[in-house]
Design goal:
nucleotide-binding; elongated; GROEL-like_equatorial_sf; ATP binding; 3 domains; T-complex protein 1 subunit delta
Amino acid sequence: IFQILGCRPVASVDHFVPEALGSADLVEEVSCGGDGKVIKVTGVANPGQACSILLRGSNKLVLEEAERSLHDALCVIRCLVKKRALLPGGGAPEMEVAVKLRQLAQKQIGAQQYCWRAFADALELVPYTLAENAGLSPIHTVTELRTQHANGNSDYGVNVRKGYVTDIREENVLQPLLVTLSAIKQASECVRSILKIDDIVSSLLSSH
């Protein structure tokens, strides 16, 4: 706020000096329904790219849901600003990576092969959960999706509207690339930390 108004943050009233003050055409307290009131500032010389969003609802539950939805939407926009790339949704990216991991697992031996397959199983939980939440048969859906991706149809995902597996890109169901990358990276780092704490990795290496 102080950047928009052109002022400096002041910790105490005693530190108020003319150089620390900003300017605006009008600063007023307005009612937003019921007992709620907000401070409204208009006529700012340099508003920049900042804005305030006022949410209203019939009850607290509606407001909380609206706040979560708005937060999710802003996070999507932030991801697109940081990395302007989109992927098909519906669990398509996770299934494609899982299929590739299973193919690479066949070239591994011992515990390495088991780890690669376990990673693939974990990624398949995304389309599995999507199908389950949509009221579909998760086992049948994941099996069909795995077959499609093995045949080169990397854009196929869980279509919750139609109730079966389709080319999700044609349905305009897309998600930011950064969301998928961040989820996989954070999950991998979490598992890695757990393995280090329990000394599982060192014991596996010593046994082989």
